[in-house]
Amino acid sequence: MIDIRDVAIEYGRGGRTVLAVDGISLHVEPGESVALIGPSGCGKTTLLFAVAGLIRPRDGGIEIAGKAVSGPRGEIALILQNAGLLPWKTVWQNANLSLRLGGEYPGKTAASVLEELGLAGVKGRYPAELSEGMKRRVGIARALSMSPSVMLMDEPLASLDTLTKERIQNLFLELWLKRRFSLVLVTHDIEEAAFLGQRIAVLTERPAKVKQVVANPGIGEVRYRATEEFVGIVTRLREALEG
Amino acid sequence: MKRMRGMGKALREGPVVWHVARYVVAIAILLLAWWGASEIVEHVKGRAFLPNPVRAISEMARLGPTLFRNFWVSAWRLVMAMLIAFSLGYPLGLLIGHERRLDQLISPMIYIVYPIPQVAFILILFLIFGVGNPVKVAIVSVALFFQILVSARGAAKQIELEHITSVLAAGASRWQVYWHVVLPATLPSILTSLRVSVGLGMAFLYIAETTGAFVTPERGGLGRFIASNIYSGAQAFAGILAMALLGLSLYILIEVIERVACRWKHVSGRPS
Predict the structure, then answer these.
(1) Of A121, A163, B101, B133, whose CB neighbour count within 10 A is largest?
(2) Where is A164: in which H helix or E strand?
């Protein structure tokens, strides 16, 4: 589904270029979930933005469903760190934004997704009137409104309190199991990676390279967090990051 | 209809009563201070150079029709100038602030011209536009244009990158980025800038109306009215009061527009 081949990404201009990603190759199967974990500023978000079509790699190539990524596509949804909601748009307008930009609104709307995520009652509110957890759910609603086959998440739960974070992680898991999109999750949270990633790619300091890929086939249930297998994966990831 | 209901709601939800109360108190304090100053001047100088508020307000009532006519002449000029400055300065400022190459090309020119006092352009504007209404509108427009342009550029530069990334990732075109992000994100600060510009606009309007004071005195505007009555204190102060009223009306009008158009700025935050 997602094929990342020898990708190197540079940013900056002139003599001030920084190599953010250095020769990463990764393949994500349809319906598979892969977490990318690494130190802050290592280049994992840069790689994700390249998969989303927002950044063009210097070398290598990225293909999704056999087609080279040259820009954002309707089948690829990106959830940003703070949900990426526009403060001047209501929940309804934010949730329908992708459909509107793609010219599909009002023929198709996010009404059923908002209903599914328990947001139907707050359609007229602005983001400033929502709790942090609700804001993230609106971000998810916007992403799901396009029925994407690829879901990219850039530290989507950063700065949330533990319980809210776990609730949204559970929601991500439920949605992924139900809809089976290919999921690429960028996070610096080891437990989040172990809860949501069937495979976890541990990246090095910048420029990012794949240091190790940890298989995590046991995910799929909320109670996975309480298992020894989960604790073992968390320990392995910690060692890989520190090593 | 839905929009009208939204506007009504926005106005009701804002602290309108408090706003009105604050203005009433402010006006009362200013009138008292004015009265006190007038008494002190009369006591020190032995003559009422500074008429007290009662005399000025009585004069306002007496000169009603003339003052009213001049009020509308000035109001029309100021509103036209603000609209022209806004419709030229806002989009241009956004373009410069958002498009890096355009910024590199145009900003140096703006920052060379911006510090030149716009009063220096008055003679040129008279030569271009003559001595009628257009030149007065042009003088105020030029002054406000730079103010709005610089504010819009600054506001466009402050837009959070996440908001732009968010719509770009959803496939937004350049035009859609402007419509869905750049325009709404900058509107509150531009309206604030416009509100602050009312004072500057009034000052330039006074200059424009008094510089061209040798023609059409009966429809010369408040500036002309004040200048021609400068030696009869109470009449001049009636004009000054009318000018203050004009400024205050515009200030309130822009605030109401801001509350309706940028309602999201005024919704109360929800505790987490």
Answers:
(1) B133
(2) helix A162-179
The pLDDT score that the predictor gives to residue B271 is 46
Q: Domain range for residue A218?
A: 1-74+181-243
Mean pLDDT of B64-88: 89
**Paired residues of A201 in beta bridges:** A36, A213
Q: Minimal CA–CA distance to B241: which of B128, B74, B95?
A: B74
CB B267 to CB A126 under 8 A?
yes
- List, for chain A, all residue ranges whose pLDDT scores fall below the cut of 50: none
Which of A143-147, B155-159, B210-214, B256-260 is the least confident region?
Answer: B210-214
Burial of A103 from C-beta contacts in 10 A (0-12 / 13-18 / 19+):
exposed
Domains identified in chain A, total number:
1
The confidence score (pLDDT) of residue B91 equals 94
Q: Specify if A14 maps to a domain.
A: yes
CA B155 from chain centre, in angstroms, equals: 18
Residue B88 forms contact with A (CB below 8 Å): no
State whether residue A61 is helix, strand or coil: strand
- Where b means 16+ CB within 10 Å and e means fewer, B42-58 reads eeeeeeeebbbbebbbe
Q: What is the pLDDT of residue B175?
A: 93
Tell me if A45 is assigned to some domain: yes
The pTM for the full model equals 0.81
Cα dihedral angle (B89, B95, B101, B105), rounded to 10 degrees? -10
Longest alpha-carbon distance in chain A: 52
Which CATH superfamily hosts domain B51-266?
MetI-like (1.10.3720.10)
Instruction: Judge: B170–A132 Cβ closer than 8 Å, yes or no.
Output: no
Of B202, B203, B190, the C-alpha closest to B247 is: B202
- Domain borders along chain B are 51-266
Among A54, A80, A142, the residue with its CB nearest the CB of B162 is A80
Instruction: Give the torsion sign (CA, B43, B49, B52, B58).
Output: positive
- Quickly list H helices, chain B: 2-13, 16-45, 53-62, 64-98, 100-113, 122-129, 133-157, 161-169, 174-177, 183-211, 221-228, 233-261
CATH of the domain at A51: 3.40.50.300
Check CB contact of B162 with chain A, cutoff 8 Å: yes
Task: List, in sequence order, the alpha helices (H) in A6-161.
Answer: 44-51, 91-95, 97-101, 111-116, 132-144
3-state SS, residue B164: helix
Rg of the Cα atoms in chain A: 18
